Amino acid sequence: MGINIAIDGPAGAGKSTIAKLIAAKKGYIYVDTGAMYRAMALFLLREGVDPSDTAAIDAKCQEADITIGYEDGAQIVYLNGENVNGCIRTEEVGKMASVSSPNPNVRKKLVELQQKLAADADVVMDGRDIGTCVLPNAQVKVFLTADSHERALRRYKELTGRGEACDLAVIEKDIIERDRQDMTRELSPLKQAEDAVLVDSSHMTVEEVAETVISLCEKKF
Question: Helix or strand or coil: residue 70?
């Protein structure tokens, strides 16, 4: 097994930003599991699947081929051969991902790919259940969080920065609801692994969070 760093936490906690930075600093491969689930969600939306139709999700997910490639050091997510990096970060896709990701068949298909990547290379992987389910033997585990208002504010700034109209209160409400769904789902709910280190980034800069995680790595390796 390669060196594995697992970063879990709720939506908007900054997992992807930190995971990418750690991977760049350590020279590891960054595996954005959330992007893989979002790619599946995008596929289901394109196929017109109702988020409440579990049977349809179960059937349709088998038709999606989701792979990861790298171009100039950047991760590219491919959905049936199409680069969908520019399509998977919308609110609509995020909501569908939260609904579809607990589906056992969706998870089985994607977890197998994630585990293979981790077995073959040194990786930093972020998601909701990396340290508890996907990479339970990861050498370093972090549970990254922040209060709901701070997470909503970060998302608000990201969306308005792209010129998208949005409402901060609505974003925070959606985040709180997504937290509830993720923490109460039957299959692999969002929770802190027993051996994970809790990092609250509410009042920390990105660099401060990154240095905290890197210090944990230095103690292990």
Answer: strand
Let me know if residue 138 belongs to a domain: yes
Are the CB atoms for 56 and 143 separated by under 8 Å? no
Residue 220 covered by a domain: no
Number of domains in the chain: 1
E strand spans, 89-219:
123-127, 140-145, 197-200
- Give me 132's structure tokens: 């508890």
122-156 per-position pLDDT tens digit: 889 998 889 999 999 999 999 999 999 999 999 99
Q: What is the pTM of this model?
A: 0.75
Paired residues of 76 in beta bridges: 69
Q: For residue 106, which of 169, 38, 194, 170 has the smallest C-alpha distance? A: 38
The CATH number given to whatever domain includes residue 41 is 3.40.50.300
